[in-house]
Inverse folding.
């Protein structure tokens, strides 16, 4: 296989079943099922769609434009299942991988893409890990460098569970941050799908499946404006600039105050409110709560 063929190949590794993904007692067990991570999902989604091959795959193969909320509400629990379906997390990971085997095609210039190409699939994983880390670090109190390193090492186990080549995966947390910043600075662009997501942020979708339509109709524009402002606050500055989002020093001060306020209240919420159904099911099955006991 040539280098160019490898770049667009599936990158599937045959030994995924032998990988052990994080389970009870891990930092993923503590943090990855927190509802608060949803605050960071626009950040993760936008960064994904700005990678040209990933954005093109969504454009060609996804129902994201017609059912954006439904797609998020289907996808996130599955990803959480890699941790919380313990001890069968690797099986869940491989199911997720299989959903992507047929997502392939060509860019307008004729260059081929494949969702399971390591550069593409790992970037999607990296944005989800980054979202969990950013929420935890921003709203629940700064993680120690040791915890960040552990959290990252666990995320590497998760990625290996998918059975996709890990040849581009950074070896440690510091390298991951360098990789992440480099991709943001040099590879991401305002693709058609990313532009559509920005437009959805400014003009929210007509439906939200978790609310009755009359109620959502009342809340849609005022709540959408606030949620988009929060989403812009979560973005790396270089990405704000690239999508043309304004962000003033006053916005930053307000955002930091909001983060501190949420950080004081969020840890006090009961588990039934704070953690997602997939996470709570894992806690019950394992007999181990988020704190590892």
């Amino acid at each position: 296989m040539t280098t160019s063929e490898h770049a667009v190949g599936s990158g599937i590794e045959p030994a995924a079943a032998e990988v052990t993904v994080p389970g009870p007692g891990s930092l993923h067990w503590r943090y990855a099922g927190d509802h608060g991570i949803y605050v960071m999902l626009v950040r993760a989604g936008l960064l994904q769609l700005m990678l040209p091959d990933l954005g093109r795959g969504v454009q060609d193969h996804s129902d994201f434009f017609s059912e954006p909320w439904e797609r998020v509400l289907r996808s996130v629990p599955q990803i959480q299942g890699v941790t919380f379906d313990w001890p069968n997390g690797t099986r869940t990971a491989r199911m997720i991988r299989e959903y992507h085997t047929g997502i392939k095609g060509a860019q307008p210039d004729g260059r081929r893409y494949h969702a399971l190409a390591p550069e593409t699939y790992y970037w999607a994983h990296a944005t989800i890990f980054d979202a969990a880390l950013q929420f935890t670090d921003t709203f629940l109190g700064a993680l120690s460098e040791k915890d960040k390193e552990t959290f990252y090492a666990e995320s590497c186990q998760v990625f290996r569970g998918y059975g996709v080549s890990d040849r581009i995966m950074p070896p440690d947390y510091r390298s991951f941050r360098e990789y992440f910043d480099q991709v943001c600075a040099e590879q991401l662009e305002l693709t058609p799908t990313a532009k559509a997501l920005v437009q959805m942020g400014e003009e929210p979708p007509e439906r939200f499946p978790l609310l009755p339509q009359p109620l959502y109709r009342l809340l849609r524009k005022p709540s959408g404006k606030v949620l988009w402002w929060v989403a812009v606050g979560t973005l790396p500055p270089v990405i704000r600039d690239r999508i043309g989002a304004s962000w003033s020093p006053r916005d930053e001060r307000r955002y930091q105050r909001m983060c501190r306020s949420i950080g004081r209240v969020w840890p006090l919420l009961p588990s039934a409110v704070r953690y997602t159904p997939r996470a709570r099911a894992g806690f019950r099955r394992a007999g181990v709560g988020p704190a590892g006991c």
User: Anything to note?
Assistant: Residues 142 and 192 are 35 Å apart (CA to CA). The two ends are 49 Å apart (CA to CA). Residues 118-139 form the longest helix (22 residues). Residues 3-188 form one domain.
